[in-house]
Design brief:
Oligomer: single chain
CATH class of the largest domain: Alpha Beta
CATH architecture of the largest domain: 3-Layer(aba) Sandwich
Strand order of the largest sheet: 10-9-11-8-14-15-16-17-18-19
Helix content: 25-40%
Structural class: alpha/beta
Strand content: 15-25%
Largest sheet: 10 strands, mixed
Radius of gyration: 26 Å
CATH topology of the largest domain: UDP-N-acetylmuramoyl-L-alanine:D-glutamate ligase
Low-confidence stretches: 1-66, 690-697
Number of strands: 32
Length: 697
């Protein structure tokens, strides 16, 4: 047993010691944040104080509905940089709350352009003082906006109050609700997304604002009818007139602290500054509030000591003998290579149940464990939480499967901090141990482009089969003596036994990957940005990639099905559709309607000119593999003409309709397909993976 595990009081003593070392600077910061008293459920007040005297606060009143203009009408709010993920989401929330919202940005593209259009929000392309001619009451500025921005200057000249992103969120939307805030160096987006989804499954109808797109929810924001508001709390600075971390505006009722490490080298001088801001956040939690903190992270525990509320620890432990070391503990049961992660959860030493997720990696088990703990504090039934965890499908750009081409899977991930890179690479190596794992890494974020992580990156790729490092993104933004050296990094990775190479051009890197991959391999693309759309280009270069259908594909899918006399897809949230495109056209498709551990396969079709190339089998195989990742045990289908294909190529057998799972029969897609003349029902039982480790005795 590790020494720290043999001494359960070690973390508590470390936390107390850190609390005693809280500096006078921290205390001043906390007093500044708390100025005006602690958040109350009654008695409204302005929460948007930004600590600056140079920005005028315009007149406003807080009504039962939230923030309003002085005359009681809805606010007119202009967002500078509205196409950003966070700004666009907040704009959408303000629109849902009934405010008149418009904004501007240098350029706007899908999916944000589509999202804003669907929300009925007008967008000015380009920045111009004339964009404020419509007379907004507030101008919301992001942290990338400087004091000399033309629209900022125009707002000041016209006497229009400036608001930061977090202060607008706090004053307009968080008042009167219970903020559940997720913070930490790593795992915020996944954890906040899973929390929002589990509360949705529990019927709580929470509001949420998340800096990513949860796959289950379709977008990262929603204004719900419930009391709870899930917020992903960012430690980055607020605005040019307020250099505090964004999350210091959010006044959490309950919170999750996943981890504390040095990051954001462009705004934090050292780890001590990072500690101070997380301690200040913990100090905001009221005495009747709750903080869940990762018990495996001493830095997080130290920061948590500043919390006046109840502190609950969580963490993944090796066996049942260790579950008492955490308030919420998990023991992983899955073997390497399993397509789902299975883990037992203990609540203060008592078994809570067995949970299953498609997410991979011990870090994601820890993230989900925090969600389980907070949901329990919220009052959710364990079985309901287990259903939420089972059906949670992750977040775009977090271990997201972009597609499969020629047997090669391409996965996209946002990881860029050395710790996040190491966790992601190791997790995917565990899930796909049989074949090569090729990692393509773009040093793009403010910290990853700097030498501060030069040594830490060397060991972050140890679990990879090969590593390709792309060119630094906009290197001129970092002083030459502070820049990461990709060539030096490649040598350091190679010295640890992993072949690595640095590339000056992405197109050369692309061709090198193509020449190296083989069927069964995985390509992992790591970047905090687009990486020149590398993942999609790899799939296209390999040819006939199988990808998840986008909204724009739906008319073509329905037209392809209609050509064979098949019913159109009923596009419910439970439906996943895979397509193969020939250029911009859909040439093959298949859909899966997941109903718990049963699913309905339907709509398999290939254009006449591409039949005979094996595309139908490829799609069938891919959708069945996808079903396994969703926890499906039985796949049903209905066919009037292709029973021989499904039997000989994919292993389905005919069954009477009476034995079809009632959940599948309840699908409108089943009902429409079963009405076809001569239709027969078939089923495929997915084999047990043998992937569960027995409890230790």
């Amino acid at each position: 047993m590790r020494p720290d595990r043999a001494d359960p009081g070690r973390h508590a003593r470390a936390a107390a010691s850190c609390a005693q070392r809280c500096s006078r600077k921290l205390q001043c910061l906390v007093r500044a944040v708390r100025r005006g008293g602690r958040r109350r459920r009654t008695g409204r007040r302005n929460l948007a104080a930004n600590g600056s005297t140079q920005v005028r606060e315009g007149p406003r009143a807080l009504t039962q509905e939230g923030l309003a203009a002085e005359d009681g009408r809805a606010l007119k709010v202009h967002f500078i940089g509205i196409a950003g993920t966070g700004m666009g989401a907040l704009a959408g929330l303000m629109r849902e709350a009934g405010h008149d919202v418009r904004g501007s940005d240098a350029a706007i593209y899908p999916p944000m352009s589509t999202q804003l259009e669907e929300a009925g929000i007008d967008v000015f392309e380009g920045f111009d003082p004339a964009n404020l001619a419509w007379g907004p009451d507030r101008v919301v500025v992001g942290n990338v906006c400087s004091a000399d921005h033309p629209e900022v200057v125009a707002a000041k000249e016209r006497g229009i109050a400036l608001e930061s992103f977090p202060s607008m969120l706090a004053s307009a939307l968080l008042e009167g609700r219970d903020p559940y805030v997720v913070v930490g160096t790593h795992g915020k987006t996944t954890t906040a997304s899973a929390l929002a989804w589990c509360l949705v499954v529990a019927g709580a109808d929470p509001s949420y604002l998340i800096g990513g797109v949860p796959q289950n929810l379709g977008r990262g924001y929603h204004l719900g009818s419930g009391d709870t508001f899930v917020v992903e709390g960012d430690e980055y600075d607020t605005a040019f007139f307020d250099k505090r971390s964004k999350f210091l505006h959010y006044r959490p009722k309950r919170a999750i602290l996943t981890s504390v490490e040095f990051d954001h080298a462009d705004i934090f001088a050292d780890l001590d500054e990072v500690r101070r801001t997380f301690r200040a956040f913990a100090a905001l939690i009221p005495a009747d509030g709750d903080l869940l903190v990762c018990g495996d992270d001493p830095e997080a525990l130290g920061c948590a000591a500043a919390c006046e509320g109840r502190i609950h620890t969580y963490g993944v432990v090796p066996d049942e003998a260790s579950v008492g070391e955490r308030d919420y503990a998990a023991v992983v049961r899955s073997r390497p290579g399993a397509r789902r992660t299975v883990f037992d959860v203990y609540e203060r030493g008592t078994p809570l149940g067995t949970f299953s997720t498609q997410l991979v990696g011990q870090h994601n088990v820890a993230n989900l464990l925090a969600v389980i703990g907070l949901c329990r504090l919220h009052g959710c039934d364990p079985e309901v939480v287990a259903r939420g965890i089972q059906t949670f499908r992750g977040v775009r750009r977090r271990q997201e499967l972009l597609g499969v081409a020629q047997g090669v899977r391409v996965i996209d991930d946002f990881a860029h901090h050395p710790t996040a890179v190491a966790m992601t690479v190791s997790a995917l190596r565990r899930r796909y141990p049989e074949h090569a794992l090729h990692v393509c890494f773009e040093p793009r974020s403010a910290s990853s482009r700097r030498r501060v992580f030069q040594q830490a990156y060397a060991s972050a790729f140890d679990a990879a089969s090969s590593v390709r490092i792309g060119p630094l993104y906009r290197p001129e933004k970092v002083p030459a003596n502070e820049r990461l050296d990709p060539v030096e990094l490649a040598r350091a990775i190679g010295a640890r036994g992993v072949p690595a190479r640095a590339f000056e051009r992405t197109d050369v890197l692309l061709e090198d990957v193509i020449s190296a991959v083989a069927p069964g391999d995985t390509v992992l693309v790591l970047s905090s940005g687009s990486f020149d759309d590398l993942g999609t280009r790899i799939l296209q270069r390999l040819g006939d990639p199988v990808v998840f259908a986008q909204t724009r594909d739906r008319p073509q899918v329905d037209a392809l099905l209609a050509g064979y006399g098949l019913p159109a897809v009923v596009w419910e949230p439970t439906v996943d559709t895979l397509v193969i495109r020939g250029g911009e056209d859909v040439v093959a498709c298949v859909s899966l309607d997941v109903r718990g551990d049963a699913a309905f396969l339907f709509g398999l079709a290939v254009t006449p000119e591409r039949r005979g190339e094996g595309l139908g089998w490829v799609l069938g195989d891919c959708i069945m593999r996808h079903a396994r990742t969703q926890g499906v045990r039985r796949i049903y289908l209905v066919t009037a003409t292709a029973s021989n294909f499904f039997a000989t190529k994919l292993g389905f057998t005919e069954v009477p309709r009476e034995v079809v799972d009632p959940r599948v029969v309840g699908s409108p897609n089943f009902e429409a397909t079963a009405a076809l003349e001569g239709a027969v029902c078939m089923v495929f039982e997915l084999p047990t993976e043998g992937a569960i480790l027995p409890p230790r005795t």
